[in-house]
Design a protein that fits this description.
single chain, 6-stranded mixed beta sheet, alpha/beta, about 325 residues, 5-stranded mixed beta sheet
Length: about 325
């Protein structure tokens, strides 16, 4: 998505609401060898809900991390996410990919909430099929506001990085989790500190995503502000002071599953893989399974990673929960 040129840096940058992470990986024996990783707090007022509002200030903060990791001048892959990303599946007559993109842009004038000339647009073929209208191609259409791509580029430039490709958070997550193409739909419930999303991948393509504002930060603090969240046993207690946080999370996840059912006229058959900081909270998968009436399992990326035996357990946990997006971005051209 939005490639400036072919990238093979093995370096991924993920900018969240409260934290930005960088991961560097190499391919080794079918796994991802972690060559370096680090994070910084995102300066207040520079990014919110996937929108970068002050790229210069964000870039200055990122520059400190880039310097510590000795990445000045290196190429990097980054991502965009949140409600400013517009997606849709479109069916068009089969044609060449450049013609499909032109046709999709013309089609977008009928549904895109912003002028097409103000959007950066890409399309991905999902499947080819034939019906009564002839040979058809189903496309995944994605668009973001051009200033968002430009703000991300500026932030990287100020930080001393060379941004060569931008993609979507769910695609990077799927890659990090080792999602295989052609094995049927694969679904993820990614929970970050302040926002989460549910996405469904099929044949390597993103066919559904929905973001919502519920995150794990407030829940973890309500459970025990002094305790490391991955040591907390999560239990639903509707009489507790944090029950409204639990209820909101369940409501948002349930709505996402309902939106999927309406869009595809079918129930989501595959389990939801819980990942991100939400996977730190022990028992959350069981609670969600019971309340959503849908199988939820906790994802684990650690088996795919190679790292120094001297790496502390706390930092291994961080890689497994907090670096999934940046790891997936870094792995873009090395697997």
């Amino acid at each position: 998505m939005f490639n400036r040129r072919k990238a093979a840096p093995g370096i991924g940058l993920a900018v969240g609401v409260t934290q930005a992470t960088i991961a560097r990986v190499k391919h080794s024996k079918g796994k991802l060898q972690v060559a370096g990783f680090g994070s910084i707090p995102v300066p207040a007022g520079t990014a919110d809900a996937g929108l970068i509002s002050d790229p210069a200030k964000l870039g200055q903060a990122l520059g400190e991390l880039v310097g510590r990791m000795n990445l000045k001048g290196k190429q990097v892959v980054s991502s965009l996410g949140g409600p400013q990303v517009f997606i849709r599946n479109i069916v068009l007559p089969r044609m060449k990919i450049n013609e499909l993109k032109e046709a999709a842009i013309f089609e977008a004038t009928t549904f895109l909430p912003i002028p097409v000339e103000e959007a950066a647009i890409d399309v991905y073929p999902v499947r080819h099929f034939e019906d009564e209208d002839g040979k058809q191609t189903e496309l995944f259409f994605v668009a973001v506001r051009r200033p968002q791509v430009e703000n991300l580029r500026v932030a990287c430039e100020v930080a001393g990085l060379d941004l060569v490709a931008v993609e979507l958070d769910p695609i990077a997550l799927h890659r990090a989790m080792g999602g295989a193409d052609g094995d049927g739909p694969q679904a993820y419930l990614y929970m970050g500190n302040t926002r989460s999303f549910i996405c469904v991948m099929k044949n390597g393509a993103l066919i559904f995503q929905r973001y919502f504002s519920s995150g794990t930060s407030a829940i973890s603090q309500a459970l025990d502000p002094e305790q490391d969240p991955h040591q907390v046993l999560f239990e639903v207690d509707m009489e507790s002071s944090h029950q409204y946080l639990v209820r909101d999370l369940i409501t948002q996840a349930s709505r996402s599953l309902e939106y999927f059912r309406v869009q595809f006229n079918d129930e989501l058959q595959t389990p939801l893989v819980l990942c991100g900081t939400g996977a730190r909270i022990r028992g959350l998968d069981k609670t969600l399974s019971e309340t959503l009436d849908h199988n939820v399992v906790t994802g684990d990326v650690s088996a795919r990673l190679l790292f120094s035996s001297k790496l502390p357990e706390s930092e291994r946990q961080d890689l497994n929960y907090d670096y999934l997006i940046s790891l997936g971005l870094a792995a873009r051209e090395v697997i």
